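ping. complex inputs:
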Amino acid sequence: MSLRHALLGLLADHPASGYELTRTFEASLAQHAWHARHSQIYPELGKLADEGLVTVVGSGSRNRRTYDLTEDGRAELQRWLLSVPDSAGVRNESVLRMFLLPALPPDDARTVLERFAAEGREKVEVLSGIRGLDESSLAFGQLAAEFGLRYFRMQVEWAHWAIEQFDAAGEQAPDRGPQQSTV
Amino acid sequence: MSLRHALLGLLADHPASGYELTRTFEASLAQHAWHARHSQIYPELGKLADEGLVTVVGSGSRNRRTYDLTEDGRAELQRWLLSVPDSAGVRNESVLRMFLLPALPPDDARTVLERFAAEGREKVEVLSGIRGLDESSLAFGQLAAEFGLRYFRMQVEWAHWAIEQFDAAGEQAPDRGPQQSTV
DNA sequence: TAGCACATGTAATATGTTACATGATTGA
DNA sequence: TCAATCATGTAACATATTACATGTGCTA
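pong. complex structure:
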């Protein structure tokens, strides 16, 4: 039930439409926190409205409706934020791939690790630009951007460390001859 | 379809039963990579066996069956590891909570951040002990442990940074008086 | 002989993805 | 007027969780 709390949390920042919320998910939450598509967001907003946790505060052209938190919604959000999470239930396909790399021939593993490091460097560059753009208020976007920056720096450093490990493992077994790639 | 690749990846390390795989998920993958329960693992092993990607290589008491990769299974695993992932689809409830903290009164946000930092410190301590225990081979467990160590150090540092931000935001608006907690 | 860890299985429910569907508004 | 973006909705399917269900082997 994290989707509904994610929606409540975004609406706590400012009222928004389903469309805006969908784009905020893509831009801000999807990377490290929570991923959701519009096909899940629109029905959930409907349910939240039925339950009185959000309410429609405006409508525009193209059937656009703007939602805001109700008092009940804010209370539920705060209750959830202060509660102690029971279990994580983390899902991260990139990290899963990295953990399973020993199943590849070392040369291929290195190739994938280089790719992982390069992706991290690119993300760091993008996020370095974003940081500090809006210093006026402490919004969730700033917390997310700083987390992302630190995360991707860690990703790059870990990948370098992992490449060293594969190199060292290769040197310890030089009798196996040059490693054959499967690609 | 990452679950099946996670299973193939674990079996690439060594043959295992559904029960062992379930425990490896809990101990090694669930934290950062992929979470799965036995109720999902057993049926998926059955499907993988039907499709010829894994095979039963032994059975013990209590209906225990040990699975191993087939050649097809290894090929599929390597194909997947070398393919470029399309979209992440990340899910991490702890991080989601942290990003939404601005919805709390600053005092409560700080409390939750302290909790987050403390959790990170504990994990770092545990993982510092694990690291270097099995230096003989480069197994996925070592990649995961090192990633975890670096991740939780980052978590602690980010939490400290975030606490500073909340403190600074509080000082910029001292006219609002002492912040009232909702708890 | 009781309690715990081992070991597997499945049904009902909830959540999430993919694909299909529709149409308005804006800017080149 | 064409393409892109805005804006929402839903049905079919896939994946994941929770709860229920059964029994074995070990050890104190």
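Chain A touches chain B through 67 residues (CB under 8 Å).
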